[in-house]
Amino acid sequence: MNLxxxxxxxxxxxxxxxxxxxxxxxxxxxxxxxxxxxxxxxxILLVVIVVMSIRRSRRVRAQLTAVEARKDKS
Amino acid sequence: xxxxxKRDLALAVRAGxxxxxxxxxxxxxxxxxxxxxxxxxxxxxxxxPGMLWVAALLAALLSLDRIFALDFEDxxxxxxxxxxxxxxxxxxxxxxxxWATTGLPLTLAAPALGFLLNLSSTAYVWLFVSLAIGTPxxxxxxxxxxxxxxxxxxxxxLMSLLVLPLYVPTLIFGxxxxxxxxxxxxxxxxxxxxxxxxxxxxxxxxxxxxAALRVNLR
Amino acid sequence: MSIWEYANPKKFITTTTPIxxxxxxxxxxxxxxxxxxxxxxxPDDFRQGSTVKxxxxxxxxxxxxxxxxxxxxxxxxxxxxxxxxxxxxAARAAAPVGIVMTLIALITxxxxxxxxxxxxxxxxxxxxxxxILFLFYLGYMALWEAIEDSDTAADxxxxxxxxxxxxxxxxxxAVNFWNQGLHQGTTVPVATGERSISDIFFVPLVMxxxxxxxxxLALVLMRTATEIRARRIKALEARMRG
Lengths: 74, 218, 242
Known about the structure:
The structure holds three protein chains of three kinds. Chain A is mostly helical. Chain A has one domain. Chain A contains three helices and no strands. Chain A is rod-shaped. Chain B is mainly alpha-helical. Chain B is elongated and about 55 Å long. By secondary structure, chain C is mainly alpha-helical. Chain C is globular and about 70 Å long. The two termini of chain C are 37 Å apart. The interface between A and C is medium-sized, with 32 and 38 residues.
């Protein structure tokens, strides 16, 4: 049994869909998992901060219109 | 200003917390280190300078929230702020008082605790010197952190988050001086840098601390 | 007509709101093109293999991580000197973006370091300084969250940002002194105009850097507008209650 977390993670990734990984490895060489995971992690983080900023912006904008409507009524 | 210093020292001695707790905490951390990493003498000698400095830093951190909190709660801090004394002077004296009640005892006690960690014999004097030069900076930086968080309930945890990154340069140069002393190398450069940080902190941070205090007392 | 006109919150919002989608779109377009170019159409390094492709994320993120702190420092100074609320809120808005950039630089660096240096993490000066920068961001954001009153929080975080900057620079030198590192020197030293990277890698790298920069700009403008609105909500609610 392989106790090295990183190698078992790589094995696990490879076994999900071997043909795809064969193509990826043919392109990226032996560091395929490293390169892909770096891109994956970074892009996820970027998307998270963008989506969070947009969602908060929308929510606060809606709140402000609600509050201003209440103010005008009173 | 001197009167304020005397008052703070008297309060610290009477309350008993200042000296005792910090030192006891220092001792406990130093005892815990060998229990954690194992009793091997060579290993302990290797990590002793860094561990002693980290323990001193944590012990100094422990009593920081008392610097302004007590005066803030009983209302004497606004009085100090309206007194003819400049608030910068108050902050400076608070830092000095904190050093006298925690940094100074730590410095004096550290060589004794060096034995517990099997500190190499050439390093004792440098441990003492580096702590004597470096702990005032810890107190002054801590005073600034305490001034930032004085108005907050449960500010203690936040203050450690703010203050510990500011302690990084002091820790690095302090521990490096002891390590070089242990290896028989020249300790001049790290000690000079340490002295520079201490003097710079005492020259500039009272202004930052008093600015923070003014905002918090507004 | 001066730049300080934009310090008026209303003017700031009406000016930036139409711009933000364009800046955001442009930055995403640049990032998509730059990253795709870098990922698919640049050759592998003869020594580092395909890991060299991580550079298109690592270097721009690291650049923006430092620049974001710099922006916060300038915004804090402007707030302390001229008391423009937009400035204080921009500093607040920049911090979460900066911390994400720092995180990206750290993560991609760890993933890159693993095959190249044989370790995820080394206490190398550059790595250590970035970890310390991360801690500074955490403390700064925690202080903003902890204080109720917006002006008090702005004052205190500004002071913290200035003192923190001084100590961050000190830490950088201290860490350099403490350990000589594995990390290579600057790839694109702007000041000297020389560079240790060939043109085929350089063009997509610059696209990614500009893309990250514009993304940062768009996010900060958007988040600043959000903070302005949130502050207005607070003020209106206080007025209605009072």
